[in-house]
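Give me structure tokens for this 135-residue protein.
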Amino acid sequence: MNVLPQKKNIKPFIILLITVVLIYGVTQLGWKLFGFSQCTQAEEILIQSVEVGAGEALIIGRLEDDVRKENPQISFSGYTAKTEGDTLYIGVKYSGFLYFLRSTKDFRVVVPFDNSTIKRISLRDADSSKVIWSK
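Here you go.
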């Protein structure tokens, strides 16, 4: 009679855990690797204010009301930024993946940039952009 506890195979658990972590990482951070192609459409974002200071811009915004009603289970995931010429492009991402962990439709981001060369800040997605601040 074997009274010692049997060794349980934890390999499936470890594989499942690694898979969940990879899926979370790709969906929440991996979109930044694709530039602006995965960003939420610029026309769906309402910019409430843009405050430009020494070397940074504070941008406050949210999803348009119609989009909020149509997609109640999405939340702000992050942003990406890139300078091209005299324009700073900002892309904003909303996602439904694990939205309940951070269920906010509003965003407040501080984007660092070089004040001496930037004349415009534009919100950008895969196909379009709109100017949200200019000198």
